[in-house]
Automatic annotation (TrEMBL):
SUPFAM superfamilies: Multidrug resistance efflux transporter EmrE. It is found in: Membrane. Belongs to the EamA transporter family. Residues 30-154, 166-302 form the EamA domain. This is EamA/RhaT family transporter. It comes from the Bacteria. Its main location: membrane.
Length: 318
């Protein structure tokens, strides 16, 4: 055997495990786990205040991941920790607090969910307006078509509540908080990025502290001794946080922020499938048609960005 060849083969770095999984499979898992958060929030309302469940979900994830991330965190500089903590506050505390507090103040859940589903448009507007990046017209068209599909799916659940006028801005602020965190994470220099598990631990840790401050001002932080409360916490900690947020950040490493967010246009119909399975809520042809319309919009976004990536990859070879 040629020793030089052997040395070259053994010196090649192994790709991260998630690069071995096709991106569409990761995106399908993201849809399943991300939509589980809305179902978990609905289930938990009957057993505990929304922010209390969110607080304990952060505590559970923080305790579970600590043994696996302690060494990596000790080796990380304070500057890197602060930057990732800021991303975590925006992505988790800002997003979840905006949505849940808006609903708690009387904003209808369907309307709050629709505002949260504006994330792809929020990201596109920030990308074009703040980062000065030009998006192809096909991407804008796909985003608008996807939003139309979401509106078809959620139309039956839309209504105006009795919340104070300013409370309707909380879900919008929550959506913008996640959009800013997404772009911050996407364009963070590699030297300032954490691994997936340390990143999740840090985000849950700082968000848990934020939720503790907010919830302690309204009541006790003690867990409620009921099976429903335990199931709510474990469901949202495992599926929604470790699954949903973990896969969100993984997909963001593999694709553009616009693509990852546009895929979430299918979250409302997937959520309604969860609700049909778990709560026996009815399905309708309007929901199915809305899902199909959103699918067309996502296909347009994904196809356009794929063609642009291939074109950019071929340019240096000319």
């Amino acid at each position: 055997m040629n020793p030089t060849k052997s040395m070259n083969c053994t010196s090649l770095p192994k790709p991260d495990w998630h690069w071995l999984i096709p991106l569409p499979l990761l995106e399908a898992a993201l849809l399943l786990t991300w939509s589980s958060g809305f179902v978990g929030a609905r289930f938990s309302i009957d057993y505990a205040p929304a922010l209390l469940v969110v607080f304990w979900r952060c505590v559970v994830v923080t305790l579970l991941l600590l043994p696996f991330v302690a060494r990596a965190l000790r080796r990380t500089s304070p500057v890197v920790l602060l930057k990732n903590a800021g991303i975590g506050l925006l992505a988790m505390a800002g997003y979840l607090a905006g949505i849940t507090q808006g609903i708690a103040l009387g904003v209808p859940a369907g309307l709050a969910a629709l505002v949260a589903d504006l994330l792809p448009m929020g990201l596109a507007l920030l990308t074009a307006g703040v980062l000065k990046q030009r998006l192809a017209w096909q991407v804008w068209a796909g985003l608008l078509i996807g939003l139309l599909g979401v509106m078809l799916v959620t139309q039956g659940a839309l209504a105006w509540g009795n919340a104070p006028w300013w409370a309707y801005g909380l879900p919008l602020l929550g959506m913008l908080s996640l959009a800013i965190a997404t772009l911050w994470q996407k364009y963070l220099p590699p030297a300032h990025s954490l691994g997936l598990l340390p990143n999740l631990w840090l985000q849950c840790c700082v968000s848990g502290l934020a939720f503790a401050l907010v919830e302690s001002a309204h009541g006790s932080l003690a867990p409620i001794p009921s099976t429903g409360f335990v199931i709510s916490v474990l469901w949202t900690a495992g599926l929604s946080t470790m699954g949903g947020y973990g896969l969100y950040w993984l997909c963001l490493r593999r694709a553009t922020a616009t693509r990852v967010a546009s895929v979430l246009y299918l979250s409302p119909p997937i959520t309604m499938l969860w609700a049909w399975t778990m709560f026996n809520e009815p399905l309708s042809w309007q929901m199915v048609s809305g899902m199909a319309v959103s699918g067309i919009g996502i296909w347009l976004v994904v196809g356009t960005e794929a063609r642009q990536a291939r074109r950019q990859a071929s340019e240096p070879q000319r």
